[in-house]
C-alpha cells in the first residue's frame, strides 16, 4: 500500500503539477465542465479504463455537463502517490 503524503507534499504537488485540483476532506477534488452530457460520459468512460488499468479508482459525480472527480487512497485513508498519478491521468483525459 502506498504511503500517505504529508500536507506539504500534497500542496507542492498541486502547486507544481495539479493546479486544477484542491484538497477537501483528505481527497483531491476537481470538476470538469464539458460541452455536452455525452462528452462528460465519454470522459468518465476514459477515466474508468485508466482507473481499472491502475486498480485505483476515483469517486465520480456526474451532473449534466459537470463531472467531479474525488481521488484518495481508501485503503490508506488519505492521499498517496497513487492519487497524484491518477489525477494527472484525469487531467490528460480532460484535455
Ligand atoms: C482490492 C482492490 O485492489 C482495492 O480495493 C483497490 C481498488 N481501488 C482503489 N481505489 C482507490 N481510490 N483506493 C483504494 O484503496 C483502492 N483499492
From TrEMBL:
Reaction catalyzed: (4aS,6R)-4a-hydroxy-L-erythro-5,6,7,8-tetrahydrobiopterin = (6R)-L-erythro-6,7-dihydrobiopterin + H2O
Main enzyme class: lyase
SUPFAM superfamilies per the UniProt record, alphabetical: PCD-like
Superkingdom of the organism of origin: Bacteria
Gene3D superfamilies: Transcriptional coactivator/pterin dehydratase
Alphabetic keyword roster: Lyase
InterPro entries associated with the record: PCD_sf (IPR036428), Pterin_deHydtase (IPR001533)
Name of a matching Pfam family: Pterin_4a
Any one GO BP annotation for this protein: tetrahydrobiopterin biosynthetic process
Enzyme Commission code(s) on record: 4.2.1.96
GO molecular function per UniProt: 4-alpha-hydroxytetrahydrobiopterin dehydratase activity
Family: Belongs to the pterin-4-alpha-carbinolamine dehydratase family.
Name used for this protein in its record: Putative pterin-4-alpha-carbinolamine dehydratase
Species for this entry: Kribbella kalugense
Amino acid at each position: 500500500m502506498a504511503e500517505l503524503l504529508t500536507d506539504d507534499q500534497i500542496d507542492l504537488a498541486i502547486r507544481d503539477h495539479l493546479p486544477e485540483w484542491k484538497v477537501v476532506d483528505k481527497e483531491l477534488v476537481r470538476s470538469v465542465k464539458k460541452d455536452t452530457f455525452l462528452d462528460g460520459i465519454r470522459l468518465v468512460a476514459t477515466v474508468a479504463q485508466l482507473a481499472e488499468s491502475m486498480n485505483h479508482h476515483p469517486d465520480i459525480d456526474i451532473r449534466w455537463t459537470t463531472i467531479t472527480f474525488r481521488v484518495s487512497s481508501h485503503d490508506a485513508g488519505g492521499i498517496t502517490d497513487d492519487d497524484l498519478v491518477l489525477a494527472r491521468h484525469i487531467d490528460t483525459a480532460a484535455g
